[in-house]
Each structure stands twice: as C-alpha cells, then as structure tokens.
C-alpha cells in the first residue's frame, strides 16, 4: 500500500498569537497546508507563508461550516486533518496519526480536544496542570471530535459548532476514537470565552430566523447552555426534538443539563432515549455515571462496558469503571481499571485516587500509599482527607515519611 498523504486544512483570522505553535506541532506530518483566511489584519498570513501554506482569501459570511468547507475544497491528499490556530497536536500524537492514515477500515477518527481553562467549576473539568508558552493552566474540559477523515467529499455542518460527523454518518462512513489529544489554548480567558459565546449565540439566532429547523434549534440550545441560560437551552432542545423526534444529541444535551442539576432520573430518561436512537460512547458513559450516582451498580457497569467497547482509549471511562468495581467489592478488577486509566493518562488524579482506594480496601496498604501520594501531588480535591489516611497507613505499617516505588502501569 502506497504511503497515505495528509492535507492540513485550517481557517484563520488574526491568529498570530498561536499559529506558529500550531504549525510547528505538525511538522513532518502534513504533506500540504491549506489556510482559508477570513480577513486577517495581523501577521497571520506572513506566518503561514513561512510554512509554505496555500492561502485562500474568503469573505466571512457568518458561517463556520462554509469557511471549513472552502478549506477542504482545495485538499489534494488522501486524508484531511483539521485544526484551529489556537490548537496543537501533542508530540505522541504525530506518530499515532501517521499510523491512523494507513488504517483500511475507518473513514474518520475522533480525537480528544483538551480545552484548557482556569475555571475549575466548568462542567467536566479535569484537574490536570499544563504549561504552555509561560502560562500554567490548572486543568481542562474535553470533547471527542472528528479531526482526521478521508478526502471523500465529507462536508461540515452547523453555523457555529461545525461538525463533519453528520456528513460522514450520512455517507455510511465508519468512525473510531483514537488515542490522540489536541491541546486547545484559546478558551483559557473567561472574558474572551464569554464574548465569543455571546457572538456565536447571535449567529445562531440569526440563522434560526432564516431557517427554523431542528438543527438550528439544537445549535441555539448548545449556545444557550454554554451561556448558562439553561431554561432557553431546554426549550431549544425540546423544540429540536419536536421537529425531529430522532435527534439523539438533543436528548443527550437534555440529559447533560439534568445530570448537572443532579436530577438523575430525568438524566437517565434522556440518555436512554438518546441511545435508543443511536449508540454513542459519551452517552453510555454519562448514563453509567448517573446509575453509579443512583447506586445502581450493575446497570452502571453494563453501560460503562458498552462505552469502552465504542471508545477503548478514554481514560475517564476506566476511572468510572474502577469506582463501580470498588463499590461492588471487586477490588482486583477495580485495581486493574485504575491502572489502565493512569497508564492512558499519567496526570490522572482521580485514577490514582481510585487506585489507592482499591488497594487500601483490598488490604494492600503498602502499595496504596504511593498511589494516594500521587493523587495528592496531582492536586486531587480530597487531598487533605487523603493525607490523613496516608499518615494512618504509615502508622499501621510503622513506616517513615517517604515514598515507596510502585509500578502503577501494572
């Protein structure tokens, strides 16, 4: 099989702050770089030219999908990789992407987008410190999105939260989750994010005035939710479902809101309805977590297994599995799940805490101490409680205050 080639396709406007970092992160990966610029007045184009990018000027028409589709229209290689200028591919991901391009079965791959933020209260926040360009971010929240797909005529859809997944599904393409992370830095400043979200919401409202379909209501619902206007978000998602009773993602978003409000019965109802329409790893995981909150451990286990089958590389699923197995008293299985989670993400504070708990309850006190200590080092929220338990264990074992080595990878 001949070497598979990759086109990097991007859209830009005044991105001089991050663009060079982004393009440096994919050196040796992209066979061509295509940049659609929507009106930069800074050094964006000058930076792009240093990387031999093909630059296309495009008039902004209040539609992100239109700009995305303009960029992929010029792609000539086998695969298309999509990035934003304020993103970067992790070093480990370059080799992985090259291997994915030789895959014969799938048409697209989902990557984990790590959105770095200083807001620890944001839904899905992961306490994992990260440093970049002299700045330290306390953590991130994530989403799995298709960023690598075959050059087979797939198109983006959506005015603001543009996605290529619906087009891939419509063409019966196969998608799979990959163990590749994208670092996203542009959402770290709360004020910048707030302004963006308000602007995006206005775009969605404008589209809704032109085309009041299920897709438009769903997009507005997402933006209302991001702007913390949950009442209007719920109304929009319900309107989307009214217009399209098989809108699985609208049911999912209703489930997310109910889960955030700790209304687990309503969340389970919406997640179940979403899965009845279409199976999805994120929904199975969320349903499993809700069942765990309700102490329905066997149901939680079943749903988390289904999530793992669809996305075996997502460490947070293993975190949840470890918690379920520990609650069931299956300590060896809990240890195994926690070990996998910290192997997939060595900065996973929850994973180390779960590992410490399972080892502790199994009676493996000596081995639990370094796992607990690592959780504290990574800033786990129950650090003071953990420190007290560490001291108790060291007292039981008559140990001095220093760490013992422990191979958490199994």
Short description:
The chain is built from 17 helices and nine strands. The chain is α/β, with parallel strands linked by helices and 410 residues long. α6 runs antiparallel to α7 (214-226), α11 (281-293) runs antiparallel to α12 and α14 (331-344) packs antiparallel against α15.
Describe this structure in words.
It is a single chain. This protein is of the alpha/beta class and 410 residues long. The protein has three domains: 183 residues, Spore Coat Polysaccharide Biosynthesis Protein SpsA, Chain A (Alpha-Beta Complex); 116 residues, Tetratricopeptide repeat domain (Serine Threonine Protein Phosphatase 5, Tetratricopeptide repeat, Alpha Horseshoe); 83 residues, Alpha Horseshoe (Serine Threonine Protein Phosphatase 5, Tetratricopeptide repeat). Strands 1, 2, 3, 4, 5, 6, 7, 8 and 9 form a nine-stranded mixed sheet that branches. Strand 7 and strand 8 form a beta hairpin. Helix 11 packs parallel to helix 13 and helix 15 packs antiparallel against helix 16.
């Amino acid at each position: 099989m001949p070497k598979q080639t990759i086109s990097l396709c991007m859209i830009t406007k005044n991105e001089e702050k991050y663009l060079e970092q982004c393009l440096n992160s994919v050196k040796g990966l992209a066979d061509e770089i295509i940049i659609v610029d929507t009106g930069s007045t800074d050094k964006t184009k000058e930076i792009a030219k240093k990387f031999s990018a093909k630059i296309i000027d495009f008039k902004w028409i209040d539609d992100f999908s239109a700009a995305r589709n303009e960029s992929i229209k010029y792609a000539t290689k086998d695969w298309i990789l999509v990035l934003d200028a304020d993103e970067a591919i992790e070093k480990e991901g370059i080799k992985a992407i090259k291997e994915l391009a030789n895959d014969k079965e799938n048409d697209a791959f989902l990557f984990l987008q790590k959105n770095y933020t200083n807001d620890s209260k944001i839904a899905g926040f992961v306490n994992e410190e990260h440093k970049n360009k002299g700045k330290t971010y306390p953590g991130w929240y994530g989403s799995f999105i298709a960023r690598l797909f075959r050059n087979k005529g797939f198109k983006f859809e959506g005015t603001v939260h543009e996605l290529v997944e619906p087009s891939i599904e419509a063409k019966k393409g196969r998608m799979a989750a990959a163990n590749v992370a994208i670092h996203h830095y542009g959402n770290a400043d709360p004020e910048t994010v707030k302004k963006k979200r308000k602007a995006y919401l206005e775009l969605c409202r404008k589209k809704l005035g032109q085309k009041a379909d299920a897709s438009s209501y769903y997009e507005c619902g997402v933006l209302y939710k991001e702007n913390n206007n949950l009442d209007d978000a719920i109304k929009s998602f319900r309107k989307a479902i009214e217009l399209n009773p098989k809108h699985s993602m609208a049911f999912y978003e209703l489930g997310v809101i109910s889960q955030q409000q700790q209304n687990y019965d309503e969340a389970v109802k919406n997640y179940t309805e979403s899965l009845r329409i279409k199976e999805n790893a994120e929904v199975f995981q969320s349903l499993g977590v809700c069942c765990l909150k309700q102490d329905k451990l066997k149901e939680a286990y079943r749903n988390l297994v289904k999530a793992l089958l669809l996305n075996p590389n997502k460490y947070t699923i293993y975190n949840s599995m470890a918690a379920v197995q520990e609650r069931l008293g299956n300590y060896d299985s809990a240890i195994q799940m926690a070990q996998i989670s910290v192997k997939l993400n060595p900065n996973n504070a929850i994973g180390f805490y779960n590992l410490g708990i399972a080892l502790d309850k199994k009676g493996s006190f000596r081995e639990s101490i370094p796992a607990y200590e690592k959780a504290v080092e990574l800033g786990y929220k129950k650090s003071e409680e953990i420190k007290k338990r560490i001291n108790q264990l060291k007292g039981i074992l008559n140990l001095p205050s220093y760490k013992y080595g422990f191979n958490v990878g199994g």
